[in-house]
Amino acid sequence: MMRLSPPNYQKIAQTQSFDAVFGGSEANIGISLAHLGLSVAHITALPDNDLGYAVQAHLRKYGVETTFIQLNPGRLGLFFCEAGAVMRPTKIIYDRYDSAFDKVAKDSFDWEEIFKDAQWFHWSGITPALSENCAYECLKAVKTAQKMGLTVSGDIYFRSGLWNYGKTPQTILPELVANTQIVLCDEAAMELYLDIDNQGFSKNFAEAAQQLMAKFPKIQKVVDTQRVSISASHNQISASLWNGKELLQTAMQDITHIVDRIGAGDAFFAGLIYGLLTYQDDQKALEFGNCASALKHTIVGDINLSSVADIERLMQGDKSGRIRR
Amino acid sequence: MMRLSPPNYQKIAQTQSFDAVFGGSEANIGISLAHLGLSVAHITALPDNDLGYAVQAHLRKYGVETTFIQLNPGRLGLFFCEAGAVMRPTKIIYDRYDSAFDKVAKDSFDWEEIFKDAQWFHWSGITPALSENCAYECLKAVKTAQKMGLTVSGDIYFRSGLWNYGKTPQTILPELVANTQIVLCDEAAMELYLDIDNQGFSKNFAEAAQQLMAKFPKIQKVVDTQRVSISASHNQISASLWNGKELLQTAMQDITHIVDRIGAGDAFFAGLIYGLLTYQDDQKALEFGNCASALKHTIVGDINLSSVADIERLMQGDKSGRIRR
Amino acid sequence: MMRLSPPNYQKIAQTQSFDAVFGGSEANIGISLAHLGLSVAHITALPDNDLGYAVQAHLRKYGVETTFIQLNPGRLGLFFCEAGAVMRPTKIIYDRYDSAFDKVAKDSFDWEEIFKDAQWFHWSGITPALSENCAYECLKAVKTAQKMGLTVSGDIYFRSGLWNYGKTPQTILPELVANTQIVLCDEAAMELYLDIDNQGFSKNFAEAAQQLMAKFPKIQKVVDTQRVSISASHNQISASLWNGKELLQTAMQDITHIVDRIGAGDAFFAGLIYGLLTYQDDQKALEFGNCASALKHTIVGDINLSSVADIERLMQGDKSGRIRR
Amino acid sequence: MMRLSPPNYQKIAQTQSFDAVFGGSEANIGISLAHLGLSVAHITALPDNDLGYAVQAHLRKYGVETTFIQLNPGRLGLFFCEAGAVMRPTKIIYDRYDSAFDKVAKDSFDWEEIFKDAQWFHWSGITPALSENCAYECLKAVKTAQKMGLTVSGDIYFRSGLWNYGKTPQTILPELVANTQIVLCDEAAMELYLDIDNQGFSKNFAEAAQQLMAKFPKIQKVVDTQRVSISASHNQISASLWNGKELLQTAMQDITHIVDRIGAGDAFFAGLIYGLLTYQDDQKALEFGNCASALKHTIVGDINLSSVADIERLMQGDKSGRIRR
Amino acid sequence: MMRLSPPNYQKIAQTQSFDAVFGGSEANIGISLAHLGLSVAHITALPDNDLGYAVQAHLRKYGVETTFIQLNPGRLGLFFCEAGAVMRPTKIIYDRYDSAFDKVAKDSFDWEEIFKDAQWFHWSGITPALSENCAYECLKAVKTAQKMGLTVSGDIYFRSGLWNYGKTPQTILPELVANTQIVLCDEAAMELYLDIDNQGFSKNFAEAAQQLMAKFPKIQKVVDTQRVSISASHNQISASLWNGKELLQTAMQDITHIVDRIGAGDAFFAGLIYGLLTYQDDQKALEFGNCASALKHTIVGDINLSSVADIERLMQGDKSGRIRR
Amino acid sequence: MMRLSPPNYQKIAQTQSFDAVFGGSEANIGISLAHLGLSVAHITALPDNDLGYAVQAHLRKYGVETTFIQLNPGRLGLFFCEAGAVMRPTKIIYDRYDSAFDKVAKDSFDWEEIFKDAQWFHWSGITPALSENCAYECLKAVKTAQKMGLTVSGDIYFRSGLWNYGKTPQTILPELVANTQIVLCDEAAMELYLDIDNQGFSKNFAEAAQQLMAKFPKIQKVVDTQRVSISASHNQISASLWNGKELLQTAMQDITHIVDRIGAGDAFFAGLIYGLLTYQDDQKALEFGNCASALKHTIVGDINLSSVADIERLMQGDKSGRIRR
Q1: How sure is the predictor about A17, in pLDDT bands with cuts at 50, 70 and 90?
Q2: How far apart are CA A173 and CA C30, in angstroms?
Q3: Contact partners of E by the rule of 3+ C-beta pairs under 8 A?
């Protein structure tokens, strides 16, 4: 997707230009992981025009492999994003339907080939919500990944606004979740999967996560993030993880002067994956994810351009922002 | 529609921002006419979101009445435009389907109310190409206008690339043309309407125009424009008009350092309409249109912000561009 | 007036360009009210050149009727505004004399025609301070409005720096105030009108307001705003209203990261007028004004582009700035 | 003065910002001469505010001495300049009255002190047109300069639009011209000074110049420039000089892609003065002036930032624009 | 290298910012070839800091393999480039010494590994001019390439200004040329290699090329480009090639409104290599190179972002720049 | 030096342009003092090209005398500066070696002539760290200044990263310090000069300062600044001074929304020098320095463009940032 944002806190009503960055949840996570030094390929379909080529170039620029990307007829999904400040919320207008990705053909990806040397596969709840074919390919990918021994992670949030192709999340998502090891899951999603009501859940994340694991036994870790939104300019973030044995919780990061909040969730998940792969320590991985997410708030655009050293310095408690020479 | 253009001759492959202007053929003509001092209302449907409101504000800014515009669900049509230079062509990527306008409901405009105090109605061949409902409303508008005694003008170009809703131009356009007095028509369009081949036509515009009038007796004037494209930076333009009696031809305008060529055709048609309403002299009206179009090439954006005095000065032969204080 | 501001916190000593926005207290209020959905006309005189036309276009863009505006010889008033930050104050250099508005001819506005379908008239203490003719027309407008049954509101601040045409505020303002129902009035203004000293006043706003009402019996509501300026980047605002019976006070809005503070007072007054016309509830109207003013601090330019829904959400206490999709 | 120009060929009707440069004929000439390596002081009065200080800084930046400049109440003269292209003329809106310079006090400059180590004094016909006091000081300066043995040059163009303080050019200018050695003079000016009609003059520059010298015997050289304005983007310039003995004429410089034409006349005069002081050869001086002027057309802003080497390379015929490393 | 250019024709004396693009002859050629669809790796050493990483990202963005690039201590070479216009030349200030590339260690590249699957190796005369180690590695690369059967091309221009490490081009270049098949060679270079004088050469390119081949028998094709610099804004280009049998010459391309001339030579050589690899037809390859170079003049930045289709369209004579939709 | 910074919080990995400002510790201090109204000359060597001339123009613009500056071969030192936010640190990449200043010839400055009418000389610990010749000239300057009765101030920080020409700070700095009256000295520097360990020092600044005075008896005042870096966006600063009798300490300035932190130390020292010269009161001078430094954080670029009145208003406790008209 392309994000189009009026510059300098202007509103859409005022602007004569839009800053353009490419994003999309899975692409952001892929770029973050490549930037942190891992070997990453992004799987999608892009329009066969200069906009699609620009997205490919964007992925390549940050080190993501683009060999498996299809170039198809269709448009590039867009969203317009008016950055908020203080009590004025950031506003997003989606314009994402009929994209080349929505129209991907069934069985057009060779998942066995794609996963040949891979270790991890990540999907998000956006993909199965877009079209029947997207849901079909997503499920095929997840099952192939499981069969071939990859770790599968998924952001299994329930995005009720997206589902407009005739299927409901209840009929599609559970089979995907059942084939996933690491899940990012908030309250609304838990309700969907567990058939519980909201109030029960918020009291006890560990208990709900445990129920989720009981229902979907392949799940190994359930993750959730917390955001205190003091204003559009000032947020506080933290994260929790239930790994079946203990409930882990990060320190809170206080982001007092937000530069660009979009993509912070993706930065978290990329950081978490990096941490799990690198540290073999759930607490460190979770902190790494939360610190990555905090730093993303200080960076323009959808992607977290922080280095491992930058994130580890913050993990060690250096929030001073002192000049580095 | 919104035009998104990389600034400063950048290609889409390079840009980090897009200059945004609102356009669309009929809107551009309406704004030009309002800018020249006439009273104009624009009839369309816009998305009921900040992008749609911004289009309304754009029309109001330049003096166009927006009372009759519908705000509907749907998106705003877009196009991406990479400005060329010298031998590098300007490139346009359309992203216009599923707009709020395409989805306008049948009989949702009250044309009798809209035309109550009106004198002229203009339509373009884009509208009936977009959707069945658009074609339905366009025809209804044209017929109502005829019934109520308005002059009807139409750019009856045949845009083969647009028709994708199941109907063909051959089944829709003739009835529209049959209810139009002033038509802008190029060779390809003549072929469509007259069932003649291209080579015959280009030899004799007057004869072909006369045949068109014979077939569609309400037509009073047939207009065509000529553009010699020496390069993307240097064009020469002129225009011809057959009024049933004589073939009129403008002087050639030599635009040696093009600033922005988009919208020049709309500037021509607006100038022609203004001229016909003002001068009662076909030759002067045609020259006014051609000079308006020439000046548009020197102005950023889709619309011709030249004043009547600016255009008349050029009609009188002052191409010197000398500083005016 | 046109505001010219160096971009990106630059000082005038550094800048190579100025961001330009149009403003002026009454125009800002008119645009706010039109943006909130009311039908508004702005009455002024503008220079008969491209700058004057641009101001007209600006008003039209935001939905304000410009039919009654005169185009006269003279210049457009300007001010240069260097935005401050933290302990560095915003600096304004006025360059406003000899404007087309100052030179408006006596009896050149037909107030009976202007007010024919109107319900409300608003003036500010700037107008009578500019020239004898401005004062004459302002008084004529106020009296005609009273006669025709409009509600009249006025920002009756005493701007001592402006009066340079030979008259004093003491000789001109009281007659205007005497014909006004809703007045915005600070301490300095109260002193002027009531002949009291400053210390007495600040102790008891309600008492002073009551005295003002006693002296000018047409006044129905006296309003004042409070601003705690912690720094140029952080302000806290609230407002009070005495309606002859009770003293109302808003909640305080804490604007921790100011984007653009200019026009916040106008946003307040527009919000108050909208609230009084809409809610029939002084407390709600006052809160609406204060929340409108708070949101204006987060928006670039002189005018408050918040919607009714945006402002009401803040009135209901949502200061979180969470992303809206 | 400050020039405010919409960027990138935008019209005032479109722009949201203005590029700002400082200019004014005499200041531009002074800066050019300083840039060419001469020692120059500029004499004027500026407003005692940040805009005035910025003009001082601008002059200092380019090496002009600012010691004698007065800081007075009043405003800074402005002009708005909409750059044209091809057949669209550049448009200027002046907003220059009531400047701090207009209001300079009589006898507030100590010309004897100012001229102590000086060799040359330049004035333009703008100064005596602004106010009675400006005319008074200009005449006093010219006479003092003559008395102290300086060479005096003047651009004696007749700017009929400026004179609005009650005096006419006919009553003021002749005494100034009578005390000037080097005059830049076009046809309209010649008519004013010689009481001849236009047609007679244009036939024979040398003869008219000779008549001027006969009437004002201190004049040693009469200079005129010719500009063929093919379009706003393409001009051809040349210059002539009558030195009492021969009529000199430069080669024509063909400026096919104008970048910024404002200040080209000032660049010419500065180049001429530099040439006369340096080469002791009227033909070379005239060519230097014409080449300086041509190069100015390729430079953004009011001032000619070309070096002596740049100009001499063009004098020697190198128009190739080949890259210099 | 990084090119830093003042925007919008500003001079270094005026600018407050620099547009930054990455370039360098061999990198530009590599990117062009990758953009045209070939598989390309770039071999260099970059500074081990964010500037070096940005160059890597730039190469990756456009599809160039960066695996073999070294990250070393040292700086990134820079040049400042002030774009000229009309008679004002473009000016370049180099700041390239002590770069990480200059300091590359001997035998730090494993050329046999690098060339394992390669078909072609290109070097330029810049590399051996930078440092003794650069010359050493360049020679080693060329010899290894020859041994492994790659085609070797070289731009063997003699850059006298660069050689400052103690060796002369005469002692270094001949051995490199002796191991190269396709050479780009101008008059000055021919003199160096052939010990002939300039006047003799320019009369007969084919004869001189033949002599060069006689001296260096591995050379198969000698190429030269011609540029007529009418002004900094208007150039005409063509190219010639001697293949031992016939002298081929392209059509002339007339670039009437140059956008950015830097990198046009690299675009030519990349086009030539692409053409030789693709068409097996020297004339077509040469035309492809010249058309690629012409299009580069219309594109901002160092690299030619034209597609094969864009270049072939120009080869077929379409210079019209008509809008492509 | 030139500072090149990506605009709008972009990282070097993202930017397509760099904002350019000129800086360097001593130049910043000189400009601040000139801006505050003192007569200042800057002594350095600059490259003899357009970049060097631009630095001269920058100094002249702000009123600094440039007569004594040498124009030599060599480059201009650069640094790239990526502005941080919240927990993301500002990052600096230096590219400063081989500058024209490093290569200054021994005895090429005539210090007796330079100091003829001077009262004060300031040096920083950067200069002797750059090259042997720089150290030689710095020592010569300091000794000449002492001999001629000037007050000498020095920022004697120990910049271990810079010393790469073969000498150590221990062998060079003490003789410079021994000839300085006012020293800015932090803990690391004290250790170097006093051979004490860090922990001892931080407990008692006054005692360490007294030891320094004991060792270098010409020192009259020892100054240190304190910065609490809450984040890259929020710092608190204060300063202390030991004058041999009492330990003075400023109020803390809380900079909650930093605009640009670079140059704040130089603003402090300039303010201190101004204060010492103006107030004859160490406490006021120290406060003036700290307030100058605080205001610098709110100003874009390296230099403090605050006026004496601006700084004194802050000294008197007005941190409100209220609009000044």
Answers
A1: very high
A2: 51
A3: A, B, D, F
